[in-house]
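Section 5: illustrative case.
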């Protein structure tokens, strides 16, 4: 495998959920690169049924009060990933609305880029979504998919062996 390809795959080994952040800020330049990946993400029928609210640490008392882990309150940036189900593509055969899938894909793209930048991240789904909506002024018809904490990890991101199911348990060839 050539070096560039190796470096790319190593990203997946370095990424982990980061719940303790240093006080270092994320520069405007880095943040704008991360936001670009959200905008570049694929979505069903290219509907882009999403909104992302960037909440920096200063003045974040209201949102911080809703977070269950102290480490998240120290993250320099928290992004609220929101879905607009009214804009999303809906699968005709079973009426499944893809807004959450699309929003999650965009976040995943951003998390990959964050890892490459050395920025740690953690999805936070364990929230009171209605309370988050109230604090951030999110319109009633919009759904909060999750919060993403971003910041430089206290411990450097390095290759880790994660507890995962064996591939043979989850990958099926040909049929289930
Ligand atoms: C959709 C989603 C929601 C999550 N919600 C939370 C959360 O509310 N709080 C938390 O501490 N971690 C949360 N996590 C992080 C997971 O616990 C973590 O991804 C999992 O344990 C695997 O560990 P790793 O990310 O370090 O590989 C969430 C992850 C995902 C993908």
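Designed sequence:
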């Amino acid at each position: 495998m050539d070096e560039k390809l190796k470096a790319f795959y190593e990203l997946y080994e370095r990424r982990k959920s980061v719940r303790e952040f240093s006080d270092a800020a994320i520069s405007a330049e880095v943040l704008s690169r991360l936001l670009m990946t959200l905008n570049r993400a694929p979505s069903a029928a290219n509907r882009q049924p999403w909104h992302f609210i960037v909440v920096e640490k200063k003045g974040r008392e209201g949102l911080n009060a809703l977070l269950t882990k102290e480490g998240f309150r120290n993250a320099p940036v928290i992004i609220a990933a929101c879905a607009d189900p009214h804009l999303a593509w809906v699968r005709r055969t079973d009426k499944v609305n893809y807004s959450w899938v699309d929003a999650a894909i965009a976040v995943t793209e951003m998390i990959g880029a964050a890892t490459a930048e050395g920025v740690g991240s953690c999805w936070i789904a364990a929230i009171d979504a209605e309370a988050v909506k109230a604090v951030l002024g999110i319109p009633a018809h919009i759904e909060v998919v999750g919060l993403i904490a971003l910041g430089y990890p206290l411990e450097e991101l390095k290759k880790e062996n994660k507890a995962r199911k064996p591939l043979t348990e989850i990958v099926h060839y040909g049929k289930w």
